[in-house]
Design goal:
Mean pLDDT: 84
Radius of gyration: 28 Å
Largest sheet: 6 strands, mixed
Distance between the termini: 55 Å
Strand content: 15-25%
Amino acid sequence: MQVISVRNVNTFTFCPRLLWIEHVGGEFEDNHHTIEGHFIHRRVDKPGGKIAAPIEGDEPWHSRSLWLSDDDLGLNGKLDLVDSDGDYVFPVDTKKGGPTREGGLWPADQVQLVLQALLLRSNGFMVEKIAAYYNKTRRRVSMDLSIEMITDALDALSSARAVFEMEHPPEPLIDSRKCSGCSLNAICLPDETNALNLKTQHEIRRVLVPTTDALPLYVSTPGAKIGTAKETAVITPPSHIDEPVQKVGLGRISEVNLMGGVQFSTQFLQKCMDRDIPVNFFTMGGWYYGGTFSTLSRLVHHRIAQFEAAKDARALKVARALIADKIHNSRVLIRRNGTPDDEFLSTMRRLRGDAGLALSAASLLGFEGDAARRYWAEFSKMISQERPEFVMLGRNRRPPKDPTNALLSLGYAMLTKDCTRALMNAGLDPFLGMFHTTHHGRPSLALDLMEPFRSLIVDSVVLQVVRRQEVSASDFIRAGQGVSLKTGARKTFISAYERRMNDEVQHPLFGYSISYRRILAVQARLLARFLAGEIEEFPEFRTR
């Protein structure tokens, strides 16, 4: 029999889907509720609780942070407090919030405490009641044990154990108030999943994302070295550059991006992996090599579903949606910022429809290529009208042959990095694509995911820095046929890109406003939901 913890059963009673995501999928996020709960538990969480012989007589006895187990029940767990009351003992669990409106125990708390009482009984103690200390009201709530309460708790234990055998998570709660305060809301996406499966008509609540002061760290000075001093990253410039040593607390870093020949110590990499801070590697010209991550997501069933989908009709279904969205968003950018004629607008509208109904990957590639040629012709015209020195003759890369293409290549490399991380967090393999074919070392699925966002994020940033004259022709270096950015211009563009990623926009399908970085995470998780069969359609992302 699989042994599970009392806390698992509490989680199951609160939400079966939460139990699966946290303990089968292995995903967890803190929010202010969990952080406050940890703080309130700091006293009862101290290790070292000891069990005494079963009580005889009236001598008082108690123990904190006591671990017990029962092989017959297949159950173990930590008891916050075991208190005594005459000839009996009883478990007391500390809770952050308050009791029910009627002043009683919440169902999940009651089940947890009953199972704790059964653990005490199996170890020889006489237990006839349970209690919870609710920190919000600063008082205990007690209940006498009954046969009905024990039966309900054992049923919950059996049902919770069954969740661990599920290949996919249970369905999300529908319009539940529990979801609003759940720290895994942005991972579970209950409202979005239910809406896409037409199980709710209610307003979709905004994805709740824990606030953080952590920001991406970029190091692009050739020859710079990164080390650590306690919990601080120390960035030392090369000796020939007269710049001060910079120090950044690791707690303020969300990711590290290294451009070109930047060196780092093993200790720095270890600390980043310990804190789950990705370290990404780029060439000096901006090509994205890849990155290091602390662990691979435990959501192996998502990767299994992805590999199966790559061989069946789901791959074309995803590819059609992504490319149709790309053509739509490209058309919107030109319509908003340029002076396109009716022929361009009508043709792009037709190609968007053709892409959405493409019968094969080859025909879809043809529609995408036709739309791309028309889009880049208009984009080039728009750029050259603003700044003639930034004229581009279509899209070119590896190496980019003009300043505008150099900006675009750097932006796409950074967007590829962000899409790669979003996909890995969702449990998907970024190297197996649905539209882009598989090539060694190419994150094809990341390139798929970014298609609808190329114009909305990167092309928009390029247009912005050119129009605002944040970069000039002298900010670029030409070497042979290639053009690359100087260090100062690269920093300017990176800042503009990060501002764009933090811009909050309204999700066209769900209606709430979140940042582009969070939108990538939402779309990646919904892609995983579609591939795993939790939702019937992969949702579009088309700006108005």
